Protein: Basic membrane protein A
Amino acid sequence: MTKAAVLLLAGSMALAACASDEKNNSSGSGSSGSSGGDLKVGIAYDTGGRGDKSFNDSAFAGVEKATKDNGGKYTELSPNSDASNRADLLTQLADQGYNPVIAVGFAYGDVIGDVAKQYPDTQFAIVDSSALDADGKPLGASNITGLQFAANEGSFLGGVAAALKTTTNHIGFVGGVQTPLIQAFEAGYVAGAKAAKPDITVDVEYISPAGDFSGFNDPAKGQIVAQGMYDKGADIVYAAAGGSGIGVFQAAKASNARAIGVDSDQYQTVGDPTLQPVIMTSVLKRVDNAVDAYINDFVDGKIKGGSDIVNDLKTDGVGLATSGGFIDDIQAQIKEYADKIKSGEITVPTTP
Structure:
């Protein structure tokens, strides 16, 4: 992946808003867990908090595994309804001695640098954003690590799968919010579909415009947008829309069609077993692996901060889920394209 591509991904987001629970209230309170040991990990979620069956949940899984394996405890906090207290959440965790502190989502990029400078002995990680500013300089006191993902590469494989499985030569893409990173999902998906089937029709629509994050937590609108695509002839729709993806799955079920999930293996996490048959595959972004590996490196004293870790196809940081067996018959073709991306023969775009 080129440096330019990485920078395009940096500072962007794959915000996965979600269903809330008792931990996710307007005061930004959270819960904690413990498995013994001295490790204390703080996790500050993106909008909506844990329970989204996708992005935030995947980050939590990484924290949970790392604290279990290494012995230790964690505390989790969620932003208030307008997400105006992100800096306060990071400050609260650092104040209470949590180290490292994991910020989930690019939206923390505007505040994490200032907080990190106040706590130079605390290591911070930010998911889906860079530890460096536009000039390539560390955001904080060289104590921030960016955990990034080549989501465009995984989405390319999703586009290949959709093109190979469509029976109408017509597919769709529903983005949650029109931001640079979600556009990278779109760019990869469309490029993959066109590579496998140049004459394919790909409908693209976003639930909300840039700056309006409601598109990640509006299943009803997700269903309406996707239903419009199915009604026009699309038989597979990729949902890069966080919690709104449930609506896309519901539209697929109503249309006797298929959908593609995102971030986590949504066939396994969707919750409603009646929706499983429509989830053909999911474009995986292994936030859990990235967070787990980061914490393990922290425990081993390998984290220095002031740099980014890019998780791509080469590192198994992205890929496609195979649950349900719906794409078992095209694994050879998917591997062929994946190998070409890994070798550099195919350069996956990051912008539509």
